[in-house]
Amino acid sequence: MTAIAYAERASFMKKWAGLMCSALVSPVAMAEMSDIELSGSAGVETRYFIQDAAYEGQPRSQVSAFLSPELYTEWNDRTDSLLFNPFVRVDQHDDERTHGDIRELMWMHAKTDWETRVGISKVFWGQTESIHLVDIINQTDMVENIDGEDKLGQPMVNLNVYGDWGTLSGFILPYFRERTFPGEEGRLRPPVEIQHSNALYESDDEEKHIDFALRWQRSLGDWEIGVSYFDGTSREPELLQHFDENSELVIQPYYAQIQQYGVDLLKVQGAWLLKFEGIYRSGQSEDFAAAVAGFERTTVGVFDTAYDLGFLMEYQYDERDDNFFATGQNDLMLGLRWIWNDIDGTEILTGFIQDLDNSDTYSAFVESSSRMTDNWRWKVDAYFFSSNDTDDTFWYMRRDDHVQVALEYFF
Fold this sequence. Notes:
Layout: H1 3-21, H2 27-32, E1 37-49, E2 61-75, E3 80-91, E4 99-110, E5 114-121, E6 154-163, E7 166-173, E8 200-201, E9 211-220, E10 223-233, E11 238-243, E12 249-255, E13 257-269, E14 272-282, E15 288-299, E16 308-318, E17 330-339, E18 347-355, E19 362-371, E20 376-386, H3 393-396, E21 402-410
């Protein structure tokens, strides 16, 4: 992307924020607002990589600091509200991980059987633990964490209608957010840096293409059912390799126009949670189907203790054979969720994902957290990767096993 394109994107986001703060919230409404509530979190985080880097220039460890304040106010007898949640991170080594984002800048107007949301917001769809196939509204913030849980704010106009028949949600998405990637001095990347600033688009409108999405969801007895449709720019780019004018190999993200149909299911049956997500996507280099299905079974007061112990199992399937982001073509995830039920909210989640086509390809993770006081919390996460297949995604991260420790303050 050229400097002019960057300036246009920054100008668009600035104008969108200005509209939210002026046009959508009139002076009369501002006068009726109650006091603004300020909350949020700030913290420091360190990553330590267990092995030496696979590629030149990558650090063995990195320290970063982050700030995520949240301002909220409501008026008009609580039928209107405004939420503002910016985010910024400063990283010791990786310039691409030093970044800022407006996670949310959203005005919501709520009535008994409908509500509207206008601005920048985050929307989550899905039920499974190991991978979220149907979750497509927000772009993934890949410099934040490898698990894909962190998302960029998405400009949108959203209408939700409620009834006995369920909830119908419609989305108009007027601006596309490109996926973030680690820089040359970052870890968890291919050997060639991904030039996200020079992205390619199928649509001539590029990031200004208007996307649309619909979702219907309903509770039927013990079942939670969701059916979704998306038409627009793929949040998951294809990575294209070519030689630049200096005859150097480079990787460019390519964002195709796609249509995606999705189904997600959750059944609550006593101590069992049965989960499913499935999609069919067309429009990229190949049309494909993907699915993930499994269960979580929780034992309360295991071995006559105060602890709850959950056992998870999920199977991942993806028709694509050669795609950087298709890591679950034929994989099995086994996991444990250990809940302490203490006043500090201590919880530990572990998982192991095995490629059923190659015994040497697997990944594993540990995610744990607990409060120290009312305001302080610690988090310790660890991620491990292994592969002997040079075409596999985990081959590029085979030396990126790492432990991540964070100390976070809530205000």
